[in-house]
Amino acid sequence: MSWQTRIDAAISARKQAAAFRVRQPNRGGSARFLTQGDRRYLNFSGNDYLGLSQDAEVIAAWQQGAQTYGTGSGGSGHVTGYSDAHAEFEGQLAAWQGYPRALLFISGFAANQAILAALMQRQDRVLADKLSHASLLEAAAHAPSQLRRFHHNQPDSLQSLLEKPVAGETLVVTEGVFSMDGDAAPLAGLHRLSQAHGSWLMVDDAHGVGVIGEQGRGSCWQQGVRPELLVVTFGKAFGCSGAAVLCDDATADYLLQFARHLIYSTAMPAAQVCALQASLARIQQDDGLRDKLAANIARFRAGAAGLPYGLTGSQTAIQPVIVGENQPALDLAERLRECGLWVSAIRPPTVPPGSARLRITLTAAHRPEDIDFLLESLHGCSH
Questions:
Q1: I want to staple 204 with a disulfide (CB 3.0 to 4.6 A). Which of 105, 196, 231, 360 is the partner?
Q2: CA-closest candidate to residue 118, choices 227, 226, 264, 241
Q3: Candidates 48, 124, 129, 175; catalytic one
């Protein structure tokens, strides 16, 4: 089989399964509204949960940072890319989360890949929640260690795997809030089991940090858990991009020596770090944003109860509407788009077969009338 034949066959299979992905350029994709062509849509697909990507203080901080530091970092953090702004923000993050150290990465995907690649050896194993993010599962699959997956959010399933002997060390991996179902992991139970078996727990709290817990500290703080490795990302509630790993001093020093994604990637621009500092201040000080988001979640869930689709028990900003098969999910998303609503259809392999869905995301920037219009349109399109 030639390269071209292989590529053509893969694309054809995706199209036949109604699973072919297409990027669609827009203007304002992180805001309450986005514009495509000459039409404006209410946006229910972004992860800007607190609306901080449009916040005047955050934007001004980025602009001031660019005036001070320029637009790029100029190199890896191990060369010239690590500024006083980076060092200050890492200290602020560590203090906020109650950890000795924080290390900045260019993305959550890179952070997850870097940790598993640097830590895991052939005699070790990763025990990951079955629905963990692709960045976690892919990194675990490529690591020299063995990978076993436990049933989603089921500590008993994890325990049965922990009880099996292993020559090396065990790393338990989960998300705080799961990106496709919007449900929360039982972190306290998972951490107790991990500690009882001498294992470490790694939590990716991309969708929890900023919106859950006191001062938005996230899922772990809310459940009274301090995992050995905590990954927080800045592309959701922070309204920017990038990520950080929270850990102890020794682990931070180890990652600085052996995490190739950290060593060989150009560091995030200092101007972006300045914006992140402004975002963190807003997250810490403004409970009103979280209150608005909580009210929007409650409003949506109350109105969605009568829909003829599957709903999860999510109490978070992620509110999946389970349609089932791929084409009906695409058709429903298109009908909503005709109504002026931008909602994305999520299909396998991102989610399990037979669970194609609309992934509705709510933000503090949405107004009550936005939620009501979404609900009216969903009910109207379902008949």
A1: 231
A2: 264
A3: 175
| 52 DSSP 8-state letter | G
pLDDT of 28 above 80: no
Which residue in 204, 205, 228, 370 is the catalytic one?
Answer: 204
Q: How many CB atoms lie within 10 A of CB 53?
A: 24
65-91 pLDDT tens trace: 999 999 999 999 999 999 999 999 999
Segment among 6-15, 207-216, 283-292, 349-358 with least mean pLDDT: 349-358
How far apart CA 98 and CA 220 sit, in angstroms, is: 11
Q: Exactly one of 45, 83, 132, 133 is catalytic; name it.
A: 133
Q: How many CA atoms lie within 13 A of 254 on its CB side?
A: 15
Q: Residue for token digits 């989360």?
A: 97
Q: Is the pLDDT of residue 295 over 80?
A: yes
Distance, CA of 318 to CA of 338 (rounded, Å): 22
* Whole-angstrom distance, CA of residue 231 vs CA of residue 135: 12
Model confidence at 310, pLDDT cuts 50, 70, 90, reads confident
Query: Is 175 a residue of the active site?
Result: yes
Choice among 55, 86, 129, 236 that is catalytic: 236
Is residue 207 part of the annotated active site? The answer reads yes
Query: Sorting pLDDT into bands at 50, 70 and 90, what band is 383?
Result: low
Of 287, 241, 213, the closest CA to residue 30 belongs to: 241
179 is catalytic: yes
CA dist., res. 316 & res. 339, Å (int): 25
* 236 in catalytic set: yes
Has 326 been annotated as catalytic? no
Which residues lie across from 319 on neighbouring strands?
360
Alpha-carbon span 211 to 220, nearest angstrom: 12
Look at residues 369, 364, 382 and name the one whose alpha carbon lies nearest to residue 31. 364
Q: Which of 207, 261, 292, 366 is catalytic?
A: 207
Residue in 30, 45, 47, 73 annotated catalytic = 47
Rounded distance between C-alpha atoms, residue 227 and residue 246, angstroms: 9
